[in-house]
Specification:
- The protein has 122 residues and is an alpha+beta fold.
- 29% of the residues lie in helices and 36% in strands.
- A five-stranded mixed β-sheet has the order 1-2-3-4-5.
C-alpha cells in the first residue's frame, strides 16, 4: 500500500518502475536506470529506434501542489543536460539524435495511476 508514510525514495522507485513498464510497452528499449554523472542523475535512459532518450520521471500522490512535470525547473534541466553529456562521453555514444522527455505519474491508489509523457521538452 502506498501511504503518506512511504519515503520519497520508495515513491520515486515505484514511479520509475511504472515508467519503465510504460516505455517498454510503447516500444522503448531501456538502456540504463539511475545513471549518475558527478552530482547529476538521469532516471531512465532508453532508445526508441535511432533516438536516445533521457527521461526524468516525476511521481506524486496528488496534484495539490501542481502536476509532477511542473517541478522540473531550470536547474534540474541543466543537471540533466550535464549527465546526458557525461553518458554520451563515458559510453562513447555517437548518436547525434537524442532528446529529453518527462514522464509524469500521478498515483491515485495502489493500482491506479495517470501517466503523461512529454517528449522533447528541452
Amino acid at each position: 500500500m502506498l501511504t503518506s508514510g512511504h519515503s520519497r525514495q520508495e515513491l520515486g522507485q515505484r514511479g520509475e518502475d511504472i515508467a519503465c513498464r510504460y516505455l517498454e510497452k510503447n516500444g522503448y528499449k531501456i538502456i540504463a536506470r539511475r545513471f549518475r554523472y558527478r552530482r547529476a542523475e538521469i532516471d531512465i535512459i532508453a532508445r526508441k529506434g535511432s533516438i536516445l532518450v533521457f527521461i526524468e520521471v516525476k511521481t506524486r500522490r496528488h496534484d495539490e501542489f501542481g502536476y509532477p512535470e511542473e517541478s522540473v525547473r531550470k536547474a534540474k534541466k541543466e543537471k540533466l543536460r550535464e549527465a546526458a553529456l557525461g553518458f554520451l562521453s563515458e559510453k562513447r555514444e555517437r548518436s547525434s539524435d537524442y532528446r529529453f522527455d518527462i514522464l509524469s505519474i500521478l498515483l491515485k491508489s495502489e493500482r491506479e495511476y495517470e501517466i503523461a509523457h512529454f517528449e522533447d521538452v528541452f
